[in-house]
């Protein structure tokens, strides 16, 4: 009986210390969740499935130094909650902002992506990679821009 009381007390303390904290979707994925996902995959079970409204967004011609933003809409076409554990741009100039909460089957959510063209003259193609709990485990999409260099600076690809 004493062990149960200590266990309950420890669980209560953990819940109290973490319940007030704002969590992202990545914080909600545990090692146990990942093992359960692998088991679901192996058994051909219910999984989330990512559907994007577009795979590429072209900002067209912009001026060097412009900060531009777009939105990709991700829809969960699967049968389980979709969790985006991480969203990462191929360069520090590309910053994605994924939804913080899991996306229910059939629901959609925006992923905002900003691009800072400072120091990036010329044709630019940047990739955003999502780490997810889908069968594939990751999804990618791109942004493009033709960045007009500041006056007096020759265009080069960086």
From TrEMBL:
Alphabetical list of InterPro entries matching this protein: DUF1573, Ig-like_fold
Pfam families per the UniProt record, alphabetical: DUF1573
Gene3D superfamilies: Immunoglobulins
Domain of life of the source: Bacteria
Name of this protein: DUF1573 domain-containing protein
């Amino acid at each position: 009986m004493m062990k149960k009381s200590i266990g309950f007390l420890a669980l209560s303390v953990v819940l109290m210390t973490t319940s007030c904290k704002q969590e992202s979707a990545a914080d909600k994925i545990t090692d146990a969740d990942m093992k359960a996902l692998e088991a679901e995959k192996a058994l051909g079970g219910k999984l989330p499935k990512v559907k994007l409204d577009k795979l590429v967004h072209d900002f067209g011609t912009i001026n060097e130094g412009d900060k531009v933003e777009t939105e990709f809409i991700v829809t969960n076409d699967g049968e389980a909650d979709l969790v985006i554990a991480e969203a990462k741009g191929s360069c520090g100039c590309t910053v994605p902002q994924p939804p913080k909460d899991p996306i229910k089957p059939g629901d959609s959510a925006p992923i905002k992506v900003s691009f800072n063209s400072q120091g990036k003259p010329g044709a630019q193609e940047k990739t955003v990679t999502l780490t997810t709990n889908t069968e594939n485990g990751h999804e990618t999409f791109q942004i493009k821009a033709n960045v007009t260099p500041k006056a007096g600076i020759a265009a080069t690809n960086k």
